[in-house]
Amino acid sequence: MVEKEIYSHLHPSLRYVLASWMKWEDLRDIQVKAYQGFQTGSDLLIISPTAGGKSEAAFIPVLDRIIKQGDCDSKPVCLYIAPLKALINDIADRFTHILNPLHYDLLVIHGDTPLKKIPDSPVFLLTTPESLMVLLYKRDSSILSSIRYCIIDELHALAGSLRGLQILSALNHLEKENCTEITRIGLSATIGNPEEILLWMKGRNNGVLVTGEKQLKNFEFHIYSKEKSDFFKVLSHTLQGKRSLVFCKSRKDTEVLALALRRFIPDVFVHHSSISPEIRQITEEKTHLGLPFAVLCTSTLELGIDIGDLDLVVQEGPPRSVSSFLQRLGRTGRRGKDPLMYFLSASPEETCHTLSALRNAILGIVEPVISPRFPYDLLAREILLLVISRYRVSLTVFDNLLAEKPYEHISKDSFRDLMRHLMVNEWISRDGDLIIPGETMEKIRKKPGFLFSLIGDQPSSKVISSDGIQIGSIPYSSSDVSSFALGGNVWQKTGQIEGDSIVVSPSGICAAPPNWVGGQAEVSLLVLSGLRSIVAGVPLPFELSDSLIHDVKKFKEQFPPDLPDSSLAIRWDDNRTVLYTFLGKNWNKFIGTFFEKNYQCRYLGSDIYKITFSGIIEKSLFIQGIVRIGSCDWKDLAGFVQYSPAKSDTISEILPESLLMEQWIADTLQIPYLQEIIRSLDIS
To answer: What is the reported pTM?
Structure first.
């Protein structure tokens, strides 16, 4: 089918709705390509910039086939899985405009909208990975018995975590239960290794990669290098009369800047994970009124939630990754305008981090998504869910799990260690060839919530106003303070307690935000690689102002003048040996510990750029050690990890220490990936 015929080939009723209700005259290029790929029966990975029409590129061919085949009964036919509840709500609103005129419904199920009543013709079921697991194991899973298609939105945000593996496991489960193959369609704007992720995502069908326009169109950026205390002055001037998002480093920074800005800008809102869903939704709705606003947010607005027509995006501090930068840049420039982004830099180092991200983005280079390979945590939870839902489970069921994604890398010996641990701790028991619940399992049967969610939450207290509005939550560690900032306002406790909620009223005094725990993500390897190029003097693909040239010069002063662009470098200074790696904090600490334990090198410390040792150490010794790290079995490197993984009580109960450590070293520290990187680097 040639491209120009595809729009006319759509079912007449769908074509009528797109033309009359949506005012579409044709399909976008990415939507045409996706339709062609879908017609081959293949699984698809659709890569296109933010606001490029990816969701509709997946939605339209699926809906077209449903209409043509007339195979929709009283149960959903297509899953639509997204990482955020707010994103699901946004997608539901967009799809409803197309479905309603066709007399179809959709069903939204997540933590804020539990399953109550199933509509008459729910062709689409929109949900999160966690709610999908609840449907599979806790509720009547027959609602999923007609699923034949699955669309996974923001795949880059899921594939690199256990939540993505949760989806693969659920799809395998459904295919077995329903005796059918589910066509999988992944969507993303930013994946640096799309072929690998397509292979990771796809089922038994062939896989087709569908790509849209080039990653980055023309955009305008400005970098302000200021003291952090001056940020609000820059913002108060820049944001006047504009519709803007301000991405902050932390929840605390959103609150501090919001309080300062409200003295100069009338409509300032705060959006982060500790703000209640109701307040966040109100904020999202206000962005569509066409009036000026400033929303100070964390990564909660990084993904594809529609927040209207923006004039600009502001980034406090440097992007931690190129992928994150592109996602945030894509929030602006959606109505025919070029994207506009401002960066607030508090130091020459932050300036250079930003320049590195910009460099890679302009060159079209994005971080690869590295998926976990040893998800023992997820496997243990699935074992317990199978037992708690079926009560008696044959051992062959568990053996079959290891033969498929996402458990294909887990050995039978490790599986036996896990089963033995669960039995010793009485999570499960054995009755001949059957596995049944143990005493520990029986105690949590009525409240097995931790088995469904892989998202760790800091213990917190809900905060509600005296008139009953839920404002958000604060950590238990801040519950004893009398007043605090939350949602861009200052609140004072009334002394009332309602259940586990703190009742508050507005306050006119000054107060600090709560002490939220949670560090920033580590700087990506790609950003660090770009920094190494900047230090080596590789020209940037854009012109720099005098102030930026000054910042680059100041940043380079902390490094030797002759560092190479693409290799590790050893330099000696003041009876110290310094290994310049640009491999990040965790990997550098690991390498430093490895050399100290194996070669009696006194490890003095490290940062994201370098590792420092006492004394003068020969280059040949470093070459020997680096080659050894790159060539040995990654499991043999476990003894050189200086610190233990943080572990929750629940995880430490369901996993033996050996598997907990193995999972952490392989998938959290990503030592196998470090070995791959090291093998590609020389030492100068």
So the answer is: 0.92
